[in-house]
Write a structure and sequence with these properties.
- By secondary structure, the chain is of the alpha+beta class.
- It has a domain of 107 residues.
- The chain is built from 3 helices and 4 strands; from the N terminus they run ααβαβββ.
- It has a 4-stranded antiparallel beta sheet with strand order 1-2-3-4.
- Strand 2 and strand 3 form a beta hairpin.
- It is rod-shaped.
């Protein structure tokens, strides 16, 4: 009996090792069978992202340019209003000559920060201009304030229509 038990336990151990080996092989095969993305699938995804970007980028750029234009219009309106208030109080516009945005901010007590445009204020005594030139020099917007007079065609000989 004793010999039979020993033989049986060896067969049992061999069977267990065989089962363990089979389980290990199955696990390895399962990992190998897991699907990953193929190169073709990755290329298709990149193409789809490219197409979406092609349509989205111009709209984004256009909306950014509209936002810059609204901010520029707002800044010029603020500068114009501040200069008119100054002129109403002092009976003249500030500083003859040409000045930059820092001068306008300091003298008119404004807080305009604009990294897209360079502002230049020019005063000749009775009128002024404020130029806002885009940093890349692509265009310039000019705000002009001049008194109504004989050179202005809307009023002639002291009467306005």
């Amino acid at each position: 009996m004793c010999g039979q038990t020993k033989e049986m336990s060896i067969k049992f151990l061999n069977q267990n090792y065989r089962n363990l080996i089979m389980i290990s092989i199955n696990l390895i095969n399962n990992k190998a069978n897991k699907k990953a993305f193929t190169l073709a699938e990755m290329i298709i995804v990149v193409i789809i992202i490219g197409i979406i970007t092609t349509f989205a980028l111009p709209k984004f750029t256009k909306s950014m340019e509209k936002e810059r234009a609204r901010r520029l219009e707002s800044n010029l309106t603020i500068i114009h209003s501040a200069l008119e208030i100054w002129e109403a109080n002092a009976q003249s516009y500030p500083a003859n000559g040409s000045q930059d945005l820092d001068y306008l901010n300091n003298s008119l007590r404004l807080n305009i920060l604009d990294s897209d445009f360079n502002y230049t204020y020019t005063n000749n005594g009775s009128s002024y201009t404020v130029d806002a030139q885009k940093i890349d020099n692509s265009y310039t917007i000019r705000l002009t304030e001049a008194p109504i007079g004989p050179t202005n065609p809307s009023c002639q000989q002291g009467t306005c229509p």
